[in-house]
Amino acid sequence: METRMTRRTLGTNTLTQVDWLVCNLRWLLLLCVGVVIVLNPGRAAMSDMHMLLPLSLLLGGATYNLLVMVLLAFKVPARPLPVLTLVIDTLLLLG
Question: In 3-state terms, what secondary structure has residue 92?
């Protein structure tokens, strides 16, 4: 019985570590997207419609990542997070 609990705890800890790693890598992705937006020599004015989409994706991604960090910190299991994370990360990469 004790080995079963140990295996389950080790598996959960490994998954939590992977979730934290992905969360921190997403901050790096958001930082890189922000740098590309700011340093792009052909960028439009901040009020232009073409600039609002990347900025809104950046803000939405940061908000989502902060939410994921809070859920991970309090160890709240959330089933739709992996699918939602995949969608948001794909939008960030395409935006």
Answer: helix
Close Cβ partners of 95 (under 8 Å, ≥ 6 residues apart): 33, 53, 54, 57, 58
- Rg of the Cα atoms in the chain: 17
pLDDT in tens, 5-51: 444 555 567 778 888 998 899 999 899 988 888 888 777 676 677 77
DSSP state of 56: H
Q: 46 lies in a domain?
A: yes
Sign of CA dihedral 80, 81, 86, 87: positive
The number of folded domains in the chain is 1
Task: Establish if 3 belongs to a structural domain.
Answer: no
Task: Give the structural domain span for 63.
Answer: 15-94
CA 29 – CA 45 distance, rounded (Å): 23
